[in-house]
Amino acid sequence: MLLALAGYLAQLPPSWLAGPGLPRVADTNRGAGAVAALTLQAEQIRVYQLRNGSLPATLEVMPAYHSGLRYVRSNNRVFQLLAPRPGGGVILYDAARPQERFKAAAAKLLEKPGS
Hints:
The protein is α+β, with helices and mostly antiparallel strands.
């Protein structure tokens, strides 16, 4: 009897037990997260390039990578990263021409806490 009740509560919990649903993340916040992911991944690629003398063949050889990003290597020095834009389209990071928003995002991410 208790096992049946526990199974029922696990499958269809009443609202007073489950609580309110999770809040939705705004598209602007998801877009900012994508810019941060692109910026951090680009910095990791640059470090890899400095240590190994060339760009990685794929993101999978990186110690940490975001699986939602697409990596396009143009030659041994230039690459692009693409992330899906909330609501459709893509956000592009071009290593040959980093945009101001990526430079600003990188500066903000690299700030010391409390400064």
